[in-house]
Amino acid sequence: MRLDVVTIFPEYLEPLNVSLVGKARARGQLDVHVHDLRQWTHDRHNTVDDTPYGGGPGMVMKTGPWGEALDQTLADGYDAGAHGPVLVVPTPSGRPFTQELAVELSERPWLIFTPARYEGIDRRVMDEYATRMPVYEVSIGDYVLAGGEAAVLVITEAVARLLPGVLGNAESHRDDSFAPGAMANLLEGPVYTKPPEWRGHAIPDVLVSGHHGKIARWRRDEAFRRTAAHRPDLIERCDPAAFDKKDRETLSILGWAPEPGGRFWRRVEGVEE
Ligand code: 6GU
């Protein structure tokens, strides 16, 4: 996979040399190119922003530098044999970045990121490139960052670990929270390693019982417990038909019951946590 990032803070992308993404680069699984947007400015002050039409606070990133940057990034990539580019525009007003979108992006051969500072990029830049390639405007959560660079790091890490051969163990995705499959929509429960007792805290006995069925059941119950506590919205989205008898029992103990006639679960009032 080829990744291009155009930014006014190339040094912000240094973490792409570290850990999983850094190793994927070193192994040639990821071909990363970080570009300084200011190289496509032509004035003495390397200006990339200007005041917004219609007034209001803050500044807007200008069309000119982005247009030249993206034209050249596309031309260089195509020359190097890349194909099928997708433009990924990090913005708090984008669609939510989810595991599903990470999977979709991991299946593309070439991602071009345009992290913005200030109030964002002149709309016409996205409109122009949308005529040439898919454009994904993406938000990584319901909070506002000072710029999109940290979001590029987040998205890149989520995507890179899904590329074939990047994670050591191909099984490692299977139980991810948010992975499709049996545990879909459940968060992962707690994990433990040696020693069996630490500062008076013992590990749950079931984990050393050698009984794989009981261990799987315990893990699933813990996943329900954690999901109910941290992400009740995920429980509400579940189809009760997807649950077995013990799942229903566990949920009922946690204070959840099927909506009469509906497909959603709802919290029952008056049940203790
Ligand atoms: Cl992608 N960018 C910025 N600036 N803020 C955000 C975001 C992105 N996602 C959530 N907040």
UniProtKB/TrEMBL annotation:
Keywords: Cytoplasm, Methyltransferase, S-adenosyl-L-methionine, Transferase, tRNA processing
CDD domains: TrmD-like
Stretches of the chain forming a coiled coil according to its record: none
Catalytic reaction annotation: guanosine(37) in tRNA + S-adenosyl-L-methionine = N(1)-methylguanosine(37) in tRNA + S-adenosyl-L-homocysteine + H(+)
Enzyme class: transferase
Entry annotated with the keyword DNA repair: no
Location in or out of the cell: Cytoplasm
Positions of transmembrane segments: none
Name of one Pfam family that matches: tRNA_m1G_MT
Binding positions (S-adenosyl-L-methionine): I140, G141, D142, Y143, V144, L145
UniProt EC number: 2.1.1.228
Cytoplasm among keywords: yes
tRNA methyltransferase TRMD/TRM10-type domain mapped to chain residues: 1-236
Function as written in the Swiss-Prot or TrEMBL entry: Specifically methylates guanosine-37 in various tRNAs.
PANTHER family from the UniProt entry: TRNA (GUANINE-N(1)-)-METHYLTRANSFERASE
Quaternary data: Homodimer.
UniProt similarity note: Belongs to the RNA methyltransferase TrmD family.
Protein name: tRNA (guanine-N(1)-)-methyltransferase
